[in-house]
Design a protein that fits this description.
Layout (H helix, E strand, L loop, with lengths): L19 H12 L4 E5 L25 H6 L1 H20 L4 H11 L3 E6 L5 H5 L4 E3 L2 E8 L5 E3 H11 L3 H8 L8 H8 L14 E5 L8 H13 L2 E5 L6 H12 L4 E4 L12 E3 L3 H16 L4 H8 L8
Parallel strand pairs: 1-2, 1-7, 2-3, 7-8, 8-9
Antiparallel strand pairs: 4-5, 4-6
The structure holds zinc ion (ZN).
């Protein structure tokens, strides 16, 4: 049973590879003539304003564990109060050129699908079609008692009705303190009313795999079968710190499938990779996608628009 560990260590700083255009040519060469599965992590979404606590230079953080969530009603009240204010920031985030490049490569028959460790739904927003959300999604909520699922949008309406004016009151005082000391946190959110499951009155939790929890077996099985169906694996924006990602790299390598990695900084899969590019995904992936599209001499209009259209959107 693989569980997400509760340790959060920033990666060692490295110098990025010079000549991203040349590295993109290397990546285009790797992808050419293969059906490649992408495995993506937090580094892919940082240009969209979603923080990556493992990037070089990131602060050390202690993430919430499932044990903390289950430990006390006060903790859950504080969690949901923060989530009520914060989830719209994630909902407002937009795909960046790296997400759009992977969607365009899927359109072009080069990428066979995406396994993602991110819960931000940005691959879906970019137009990728075959997506496995390894760690769940911020857009769904699940009941821990009966398994009922509902959308985060539906829950939002309930929480608004149960906590009229809460968001405005908190905004008037400035953001809720992200404090390691629980008393300060609880004081800010003591008045928040938490919603229970509409079916059974049980405890609701975002449908996200927290640290200390396991990825569902059917999700893991689907992910392995997508690795088996692909010719190669491309890791993008993950340092592969947690086994939930690294195991797919090991599986691919053990079955003779070539692995490429694009990531700022070292990863735990570097030794298994045929190609390692230490650079930002939102730079290298679009360059490689354009090279492949031009090489194919094929002007796919949807893919073209995805690569050219849009601007980077940052929600800080
Ligand atoms: Zn329930």
């Amino acid at each position: 049973m693989v569980r997400r560990p509760a340790a959060w260590e920033p990666a060692e700083p490295t110098t990025p590879d010079p000549d991203p255009q040349g590295r993109a040519r290397d990546l285009a060469g790797f992808l050419s003539g293969r059906r490649t599965l992408a495995l993506t992590g937090a580094g892919l979404s940082t240009p969209s304003g979603i923080p990556d606590y493992r990037s070089p230079g990131s602060p050390r953080r202690t993430p919430m564990t499932i044990q903390m969530f289950l430990s006390s009603p006060d903790y859950r009240r504080h969690y949901w109060a923060r989530n009520h204010l914060g989830w719209r920031h994630m909902d407002a985030a937009r795909p960046n050129p790296a997400h759009r490049a992977l969607a365009a490569l899927e359109d072009g028959g080069i990428v066979s699908g995406v396994l993602t460790q991110n819960v931000d739904m940005l691959h879906l927003k970019a137009g990728s079609r075959r997506i496995v959300d390894l760690h769940g999604s911020y857009g769904r909520v699940i009941c821990l008692d009966c398994g009922h699922r509902l959308s985060r949008y539906t829950l939002h309406r309930s929480l608004e009705a149960m906590n009229p004016g809460f968001a405005d009151r908190v905004a008037g005082r400035g953001a809720i303190e992200v404090a390691p000391d629980a008393d300060a946190m609880v004081a800010d959110t003591a008045s928040f009313v938490v919603a229970d499951c509409p079916q059974c009155g049980g405890t609701l939790k975002p449908d996200i795999v927290y640290f200390g929890e396991s990825v569902a077996k059917d999700v893991v099985a689907q992910a392995f079968s997508m690795v088996d169906d692909a010719d190669a694996l491309l890791v993008a924006g993950s340092s592969l710190t947690v086994m939930s990602g690294l195991r797919f790299v090991r599986h691919a390598a053990a079955h003779g499938k070539p692995v490429a990695i694009v990531n700022r900084g070292t990863t735990r899969g570097d030794r298994l990779a045929e190609l390692k590019i230490d650079h930002r995904c939102e730079v290298v992936l679009p360059l490689a996608a354009v090279l492949l599209r031009d090489a194919a001499g094929h002007r796919d209009s949807a893919g073209h628009q995805r690569l050219q259209g849009g601007t980077m959107h940052t929600v800080a």
